[in-house]
Amino acid sequence: MTDAILVLNSGSSSIKFGLFDVAAAEPALLCKGLLDEHEAKPRLVVKGPTGEDLFETRKGAPEAAGGHLFADVLPFIEDRFGGRSLRAVGHRIVHGGPDHSGPVVLTDDIIAKLEALTPLAPLHQPRCLAPVRRLAAIRPGLTQIACFDTAFHHGLAPPASRFAIPRQFEARGVRRYGFHGLSFEYVAGRLAEIAPELVAKRTIIAHLGNGASLCALRNGRSIDTTMGLTPLDGLVMGTRCGAIDPGVLLYLQQHENMSVAEVQHLLYHESGLIGVSGISADMRTLLASPEAAAHEAVDLFTFRAAQQVAMMATTLGGLDCLIFTGGIGEHAKEIRGAIGERLAWLGVRIDAASNDAARERINDNDSTVAVFVIPTNEEMMIARHCAAVLRAM
Asked: Mind listing the pLDDT tens digit for each residue in 359-392?
């Protein structure tokens, strides 16, 4: 029987997944899907590798909340791909803390330690761990493997990793960890395939989506990033504020009489694009809107992105390559163009026709910076890590 791995990529209100054949050196996608909990009746959709519809079901919210909708994917997989043995389930876990620099087989002890990191990623960590608990109840003997968004940045060192606070807090783990590591790792690998001559150069990857961050790379390794202890820092995001004066938080508590919980909810759920525009957290909606507030939110997004590209370039000592990825980075030509214009002083020149077509390379001939659009694939990266863990077992 051919071995297969189910990969789960849990977001704030949806779970993307993929089933991979891992018989060969490179995992092969068998099917992919989405558990979307945005709607009143959550929906599970499964598609083939080329996007053809394979399976769809809906359940009422109480049933879905109990995990029944999620459990439907396992019988479907076994019925459709019955010639394969499901060896393991790989999970994207947002925060690995200071102890995890690579994938790990999940045990009760490790799960408990990861749950203890929830204050560092309150929006994400519970969502990442919920499917682990559900699967353990449904299939207690099934191997589950955690792959961490922080692992790619594990080598961050001072000064990039350090906050300017008393050192005893750093000793307790209060440091900059960085996130989106699975995406950055995949894109760094694709750059090595597309343009190996650039691997040793000064590269910045811009993962732009509902969550957004930058990573400064040299020799394929992360040496700086815009997110820190939590996924709140850095760029403007869909509902998250990004970098903010800490005095604002003190003001909200001391003078607006907001509780810690209220401030947390504000920063994670009511800020960013939705907070500035008052219209939507979806970049597509804002780009299509004639409202001034929508344009102002987009302007702040591109301003801050360009500003922090320059910050990452300071870490690198210059810039040779800029890569756009993520939902906005891959699909919003207006955002790529606006960020490129703001970075013209740094040598970035984007070719309008190439950008409009979202070609792989979009810089013009006068650009001193190579500019790429490289789609990310976190599920493939997780499958690769899980296959390696299984081979080593």
From this structure: 999 999 999 999 999 999 999 999 999 999 999 9
Distance CA 141, CA 85 (A): 13
pTM: 0.94
Positive or negative, the Cα torsion across 39, 44, 47, 49?
positive
Question: Residues for the chain: how many in total?
Answer: 393
The residue that leads in pLDDT, 69 or 236, is: 236
**3-class SS of residue 22:** coil
CA 84 from chain centre, in angstroms, equals 29
Catalytic residue among 149, 224, 320, 351: 149
149 catalytically annotated:
yes
Q: Reduced to 3 states, what is the DSSP secondary structure of residue 156? A: coil
Which tokens go with 11? Answer: 């977001």
Per-residue pLDDT tens digits for 155-169: 999 999 999 999 999
What CA–CA distance (Å, rounded) separates 153 from 228?
A: 10
